[in-house]
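PROTEIN DESIGN WORKSHEET
SECTION A - STRUCTURE
LENGTH: 139
TOKENS:
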């Protein structure tokens, strides 16, 4: 099984469920705080691969929801600069196994990469919080 370095927003319910699913699938999970990690543009860029820039963003981030940041209008360099300044903009989770890095928790993609237990419920990326906070907000 894989050792997964899992960059999360601490307290995010979906990230908690995603880590539990990885562990139930036999993987070891090393959780790291996405918001406080000392990112460089190059390190962060490696997680996005050949995905379009718009797919790099956390759609629940307040600045995205309010229209201040429009992912579809961003170029890669500007997107990385914005994310380094405001890590809430980064789509979660970021995962690394060996040299491979991925963004987001797309169950089919994760299963094809490292495997997921079929009998486990698969959490999505949308935040289910009902306490008035958005997953994009800093707790």
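SECTION B - SEQUENCE
RESIDUE ASSIGNMENT:
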């Amino acid at each position: 099984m894989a050792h997964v370095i899992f960059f999360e927003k601490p307290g995010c319910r979906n990230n908690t469920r995603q880590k539990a699913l990885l562990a139930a699938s036999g993987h070891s999970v090393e959780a790291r705080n996405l918001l406080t990690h000392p990112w460089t543009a190059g390190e962060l860029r490696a997680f996005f691969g050949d995905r379009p820039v718009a797919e790099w963003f956390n759609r629940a981030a307040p600045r995205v929801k309010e229209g201040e940041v429009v992912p579809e209008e961003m170029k890669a360099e500007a997107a990385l600069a914005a994310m380094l300044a405001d890590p809430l903009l980064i789509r979660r989770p970021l995962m690394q196994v060996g040299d491979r890095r991925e963004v987001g928790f797309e169950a089919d993609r994760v299963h094809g990469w490292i495997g997921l237990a079929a009998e486990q419920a698969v959490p999505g990326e949308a935040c289910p919080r009902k306490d008035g906070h958005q997953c994009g907000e800093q707790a």
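SECTION C - NOTES
Residues 52 and 66 are 21 Å apart (CA to CA).
Helices lie at 13-24, 41-45, 62-65, 76-85, 107-113.
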